[in-house]
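pinned: reference chain
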Amino acid sequence: MRKKVLILLLSTLFCSAVVSAQEYEKSEWQQRAEAEDARGQIGTARYNFIRAFEDYANKGQMQQSVECGVKATSLYYKRDNYWKEAFELLQRIDQTILSKHLPAAQTAALQYLVAKEKMQMYVKLNKKDKANAQLDIMEAKANASGDEAVKSDMLYNKVVCYYNFGQTTSGDEAFKELAELLTAKQEYGKVEEAYQTLIDIGRRSNSGKLVDKAYKSYIVWKDSTDALKVAAEIDGLKKQIADGKAEIAERDSSLSSRGSVIAILGVLAAILAVVLALGALALMRFILLTRKQKKTINMLNENNALKAKFISNISAQLEPTLRKLDSRQPEVKALQDFSNHIQTLSQLESTPQENMELEEVQISRFFDELMAQVKDKVKSDVKLAVNAPNMSAKIHKEYVSHILLHLLNNAAVYTPEGGKITLDYKKRGAHKQQFLVTNTGEAIPEEKQQDIFKPFLEVKDLTTGDGLGLPICKVMAVKMDGDLSIDPQYTKGTRFQLDLLA
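pinned: its structure tokens
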């Protein structure tokens, strides 16, 4: 009975002090093993713990690996008495630890767990010399680990092993060292629990001498500990008194300085008044400057409108002459288109922002009509696709048609053979709708994506285009309280998106 009590205490009393109590996320193998162990399925639990040991080792999680390996070892001998297999598994665990070439302290802490399991096995087999030999190994590994928790666990295992084999003097020395260590850390509860355990061991083994010695030692320790606690409480009270005195002195100093603070506040109030006066002057200058800037802006807007009107008039006067020329010549056709674009852009820029008259259209039918106008302009094997819901929407049909048709015509020019042009409609919320024109092929360089919406950016051969088509579309989009832009996320070609308020 005494041996069983000692082994049980060994695995439970100080488990919170050793490295193996570290929390971690358990693998599926370990969860299965623990579930089977709880159901009493020892063989299956042992198999799963070994798989967990191997799995953790392969992942480099050696703490978890060794813990599961040691647990599997205990399941070999605690009920089935497979001692040979248990020792072989511990040898395998030790070799696995060494193969990982871990830091010396970590290696020692892990080997301590293996030596500890061997010591427990020798205790159960009642082999005193071999158990003591494992204690020596455990002590060396605990010191090499540099971990105080491992050292505390080592002392406790010494106590249990020595008392188990009747080595009372060695057990007393180890227990005294353990009690002093835990008392120094103010872990009084653990020391009291250890004393109570020794008393229980004596009672269960009918050893009146052990009970008497343990009880007397406990009373002496209890008295000294109570004295330490009282001293600590007195020190705490003294500190509170000192802190209180310091706070009173600080408040007295604060009261004496209030007069000077009031004087300083008076000076600050005077400075603030001066600052406010200066701020008022600065504000007046800002208001005057703002009025001047507003007047300048109005004048520039007026001049811009006059400039647009002038350009439009010049273009209108040139139009009859241009019509008389042969439009089959590329240069003439380019001039006629340029004149039309100039007039359109000038009219858009000079027209004040107004509420646009909206017209309800059936989206899918509207898209089909637009696609019909470009299907003869695309290259060979170019696929045209329409993605439109069967719904109606209110839009400024003239402007939207102009923008989408211009984008589709551009797509027809730049989409290579075998490519694809897609026209999409998306509802982006209760008050926003989006039209998308996408074509495969070479994408517009990122550095040019903003410039293509700016008119007159460069001088170019008009027969290759005047560069006003997209700027006109941009102005139309803005007139509709929307925007026209390029989707920078699309990289398989070009995607224009027209965003409008619904």
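why pinned: Strands lie at 359-362, 383-387, 392-395, 420-427, 432-440, 483-486, 493-501. The chain has 16 helices and seven strands.
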